[in-house]
Amino acid sequence: MTQTVQDSAKKRVMIKTFGCQMNAYDSQRMTEIFESLGYESTAEMGQADVILLNTCHIREKAAEKVYSELGRIKLIQDARRASGRDTIIGVAGCVAQAEGGEIFKRAKMVDMVFGPQTYHRLPQFLAEVKRRREADITGPGRGVLDVDFPEEYKFDNLPKAQAAGVSAFVSIQEGCDKFCHFCVVPYTRGAEYSRTVAEVLDETKTLLDQGVKEITLLGQNVNAYHGATKDGEWSLGRLCYALAELEGLERIRYTTSHPRDVDQDLINAHRDLPQLMPYLHLPIQSGSDRMLKAMNRRHTAAEYMVLIEAFRKARPDMAFSSDFIVGYPGETDEDHQASLQLIRDVHYAQAYSFKYSPRPGTPAANLECKLPEEVKDQRLYEIQALLKEQQIAFNESCVGKTMPVLFEKPGRHQGQVVGRSPYLQAVHFFGDLEQIGQIHDVKIQGATGNSLGGEVVG
After folding, report:
1. Domains in the chain, start-ordered, CATH in brackets?
2. How many Cα atoms are found within 13 Å in the side-chain-facing hemisphere of 90?
3. Which of 57-71, 235-249, 296-310, 356-370 has the lowest mean pLDDT?
4. Contact 176, 183 (CB under 8 A)
5. What whole-number percentage of the chain has pLDDT above 90?
6. How far, CA to CA in Å, does 239 sit from each of 197, 223, 233, 398?
7. 328 to each of 131, 237, 324, 380, 422, how far by Cα in Å?
8. CA distance linking residue 320 with residue 387, whole number of Å
9. Is 413 helix (H, G, I), strand (E, B) or coil?
10. Higher local confidence (pLDDT), 133 or 217
11. pLDDT, average across residues 312-335
12. Which residues contact 307 (CB under 8 A, 6 or more apart)?
């Protein structure tokens, strides 16, 4: 009975994350803020005193999906209220940034709306929500809204990072100055800026002290990184060299890169650093120069291929993934065939492909020459079929090889372990659970389209 009373007094928060790895990182940092305020995390909305949606605006109908989710949350809030429990509801992230106060109009139960550059102010938001409730403020102005791009530095106001496993994200760069015509990120994340080298190294060291072995450096344009030091600015490649010197850091990854920001420092880092994994996500979006120009990508397919070959020359075992947009306004069958040919030329280990859908406020949203859905469906099918074929072929090429695998977590079966290969593939095998967090050789014995299976040999 005592335990039940104590549990009922605990404050709980549930954060549901949509979208990219940057959002996953942001959600982890927001969780740390809530923990500093005495909250515990829960996976059950019905148990949460605060429910927060950390949203993404990249996919089609992103805002409508958020409103639909808020409708379900309203039912949970009503049920909790009937039992005498209160629920604070918040919307964060890029949909919050884009929609702003419109969210309060369409979802009147929402208490706070804030963008990705202001979540360090969460303690103030919560306090203000409670103050307004106690003052019985209703109607317009009831909710707390903050979608500014503040001058104060967000990362200076966050708790120290907490590890949630043997792998961790470290945000090093945010924002975008590229203004690709299809993309909403410059409007929701703001201009490009980079954290200082000292901040990145300090956060990484904090995570390493907690047992992290692998970090993934994050940024909307991560290789646009230009971190300040007392001796000038460092590129992403130079940062990787410094990170590789940290004791205990076994693996370094980074995402997402833009072809325009690849430099020789980064290529050399892949050549020189065994800690830097031989796997690169390098989006191109289309294999057609005409489409690349229409998208404002400011590079050509040939220039992209030069980068692919430069990485492979520096690191012969390099593998690649990418993003493709299918059915961009004005795309012809010739443009589509150019994308298919580029895919054949690169031969990806993995890639993502999506039908074009307009994002309000972007230049492409106003374009004519929109393609019929059946045409986009057929082209997407053809691209996805080719990419899937290449992914299966890449996984099957790993069979018979021995790979260093980072043991990450228990598998679904007794004694099973799940790890990651250098190429980010999930690897399933039977091993010693006490070795989670270590890297051991695994001989790959089987492959599917999405994972590998093997046996520990070292």
Report:
1. 10-146 (3.40.50.12160), 156-396 (3.80.30.20), 402-456 (2.40.50.140)
2. 36
3. 57-71
4. yes
5. 81
6. 7, 10, 10, 30
7. 48, 33, 10, 11, 33
8. 12
9. coil
10. 217
11. 98
12. 259, 262, 282
Residue type, 353: S
Q: Give the burial string for 337-351 (b: 16+ CB within 10 Å, else e).
A: ebbbebbeebebbbb
236-244 vs 264-272: helix axis angle to the nearest 10? 20
CB 143 within 8 A of CB 112: yes
Other beta carbons within 10 angstroms of residue 355's beta carbon come to 16
Contacts of 92 (CB under 8 A, 6+ apart): 26, 30, 52, 53, 54, 55, 113, 114, 115, 116, 119
* Statement: residue 7 has pLDDT above 70: no
Beta partners for 336? Answer: none
On the question of pLDDT at 156 being above 90, the answer is: no
Q: Tell me, what amino acid is at 447?
A: A
Least confident segment among 140-149, 229-238, 296-305: 140-149
Amino acid at 329: P
Here the tokens at position 154 are: 């967000």
Could you give the CA distance from residue 217 to residue 224 in angstroms, rounded to a whole number?
A: 12
**Does residue 350 sit in helix, strand or coil?**
strand
Sort 241 into a burial class: Cβ within 10 Å, 0-12 / 13-18 / 19+. middle
**Using CA atoms, how far apart are residues 331 and 365, in angstroms rounded to an integer?**
15
| Residues 211, 216, 403: CA angle, nearest 5 degrees | 80
Do residues 42 and 31 touch, judged by C-beta distance below 8 A? Answer: no
DSSP code at position 437: T
* Listed residue (149, 265, 275) closest to 208, CA to CA: 275
Q: Tell me the one-letter amino acid at 183.
A: C
Listed in sequence order, the DSSP H helices in 49-107 are 62-82, 93-99, 102-106
pLDDT computed for residue 304 by the predictor: 98
- Which tokens hold the place of 262? 């690849």
The single residue listed with the structure tokens 């949606």 is 53
Among residues 93, 113, 111, 90, which one has the least CA distance to residue 101?
113
Q: Which amino acid is at 133?
A: R
Could you give the CA distance from residue 146 to residue 119 in angstroms, rounded to a whole number?
9
* Size (the chain), residues: 458
Residues 6+ apart with CB under 8 A from 42: 12, 13, 14, 48
Q: Do the Cβ atoms of 317 and 278 come closer than 8 Å?
A: yes
